[in-house]
Amino acid sequence: MKLPPFDIVSVDPSAEREHEQMGSKPKYWFRVDGKMWLFKRCRPGTGEDWAEKLAAEVAALLGLPHARVELAEDEGGRGSVCLDFAGGGDLIHGNELLWQMDSGYPREKIWRVSAHTVENVVHVLSSPSLEAPASTVQQLGMTAAQVFVGYLALDALIGNGDRHHENWGLLRFGDRVALAPTYDHASSLGRELRDEKRRASLVGHRVTSYAQRARSALYGSSSDSRPLSTHAAFWQASARVEGSRAAWVARVAGITPHALDQIIQRIPSGRISQEGRQFARRLMLENQSMLCKEPAAS
Ligand SMILES: Nc1ncnc2c1ncn2[C@@H]1O[C@H](COP(=O)(O)OP(=O)(O)O)[C@@H](O)[C@H]1O
Ligand SMILES: [Mg+2]
Fold first, then answer.
1. Residues 193, 196, 202, 204, CA torsion sign
2. Are residues 95 and 150 in the same domain?
């Protein structure tokens, strides 16, 4: 059955807006029916809007707690919106947490932070008092660290190179602290490519090498000069968190090409080209097959 195209939210130009400081792109918060949404503008020539939406839908296929995302537009053009998941709690980003653990941690830097290692992140997330997001505890019976490994499986599946220390965090409500849902997946699915490049990659079977080149913002060791690949980040984290690898590989393996087609075809044609759809599909299938094989030495 063919599902209808995804809705496009039009931001009311008279709605009050509050600029969001964090992150790199222009964005603002606005309120609809008492709920806060974050509008993120799509940079010209990119597919950041559809990548953000597709990634959230793929996160849902995996059963991950994720920010709800819709395609959107305002008077300035295309974008996406995501529903506030903090609901009055405090979002504490990874850089703050790692700095609390080690005051020498460079919390002001975003890129090339080699202290953002898999080991350090898993250590922070393995605190016994840390809860998994409520929905996942019930559905999956997983710890926060096990759920975070699922975020890295998602990154590997969609080729998300943006899991830096401001793109994961914890939510604090009073004295309870839980892993925050996964968010900010716009840098994925080949959203930066031009169509001619996508066409050439698809015809020349170069999607595999594109998939293998995806870099995470996580490091294997603080003395490394290059971050890990998205796949190596998943393998290394899943090796450190007992009971996580088999569970996430099984969930990745359970995604059918049909399920991917169902969500890809729901992006309205004014938003994504045929090449954009085909490349995103092929990329996820390549990454899926890489995730379902035992890793080469990472
Ligand atoms: N759905 C959400 N609910 C609550 N806070 C969010 C949500 N999405 C993003 N944020 C906050 O806004 C910041 C910027 O958003 P993000 O999606 O990371 O944008 P950018 O692509 O510019 O980095 C995040 O670091 C986080 O603090
Ligand atoms: Mg961000």
1. negative
2. yes
